[in-house]
Design goal:
With 295 residues, the chain is of the alpha/beta class. It contains ten helices and 13 strands. The chain has a four-stranded parallel beta sheet with strand order 1-2-3-8, with helices on both faces. Helix 2 runs parallel beside helix 3. The chain is globular and about 70 Å long. It starts with a strand and ends with a helix.
């Protein structure tokens, strides 16, 4: 059976490395997108292509989908070419321009992870007051994307918050929501002559999205509340296998409770002393649940 929808998220997104390797950036962000678009069209499969908010020159705030794109770096150039390739090959495709925040895996922490980790450890962070964006929580992005798919929407849509805020203000809001010390956040300014040019204002207007889905507004405060609500701080791993403990570890879950099992030092950081195996699996699981209530 073929899938109903392909959601193409793959990209070479490191702005500095894209600048150093423009050919690799073009293959990853443009040529690959074109191949996926051709393949989906040939098989009559709906395509959703994930784009970026880096496409403007940053001279205007809250730009809509019709605004002229003036990419400043190789990442933005190749992502824009990818958009064109997708819609030229498959006019019924859905292209989503967005900037999101959320929880990242241990091997690739997000901007939000970095802020919370630094402040939790009493480290100062410097955040730019002259860089603006309109981010949404990743969970909201997923929900809105599915709603657009259900509406059989096509063309370009901005998936963004209704609130244009600076990186500095965003950090303050994160700190306040998670009861962290805002005095550790220092004000910075993005340099006038950076190694790689970037737009200083990446804010996107979401009027088209709200009109299509009948939404009032998408506030940043609600997004940050959703981020906190989805934070997982404790995981109980019932099975003893090594691989069952890897996912909670990679997901950066702080308390990972289980029996030691297959030499899982480091993966399990709340090690429960095993009970008699003769008591059966159900009693072993209940024993782990008791450990959750006491931690």
């Amino acid at each position: 059976n073929k899938p109903d929808t392909i959601i193409h998220c793959a990209a070479f997104s490191n702005v500095e490395l894209c600048q150093q390797a423009p050919r690799k950036a073009d293959i990853s962000n443009n040529k690959l997108a074109e191949l996926v678009a051709k393949s989906s069209l040939a098989r009559s499969i709906k395509l959703v292509h994930i784009s970026t908010d880096h496409l403007s020159n940053g001279q205007n705030a809250m730009v809509n989908e019709e605004a002229e794109c003036v990419p400043l770096n190789e990442y933005a150039k190749t992502k824009l070419l990818g958009e064109h390739a997708v819609l030229d090959c498959n006019p019924d495709a859905l292209v989503l321009r967005l900037n999101f925040f959320g929880w990242g895996p241990v091997y690739r922490p997000t901007f939000t992870d970095w802020i919370i980790e630094c402040l939790s450890n009493r480290h100062c962070v410097t955040l730019y007051e002259n860089v603006f964006f309109t981010p949404l929580y990743a969970g909201e992005i997923v929900s809105l994307a599915h709603r657009l798919i259900d509406e059989n929407a096509s063309g370009i849509f901005n998936l963004s918050s209704s609130d244009r805020i600076s990186k500095h203000t965003f950090g303050l809001k994160i700190a306040e929501k998670f009861d962290l010390d805002t005095s550790l956040i220092r004000v910075g300014k993005y340099p006038k002559a950076p190694r790689v040019p970037r737009p200083l204002d990446m804010s996107l207007d979401n009027s088209k999205l709200r009109k299509t889905l009948g939404l009032k507004r998408l506030g940043i405060d609600n997004s940050i509340s959703a981020l906190k609500a989805d934070r997982v701080i404790r995981s109980t791993i019932l099975t003893n296998s090594y691989k069952s403990a890897i996912i909670p570890f990679l997901a950066r879950i702080k308390k990972r409770i289980s029996y030691l099992g297959e030499f899982r030092y480091g993966l399990i950081n709340v090690i429960k002393k095993p009970i008699n195996r003769n008591l059966g699996m159900v009693n072993r699981y209940l024993d782990l649940i008791d450990e959750v209530h006491t931690n």
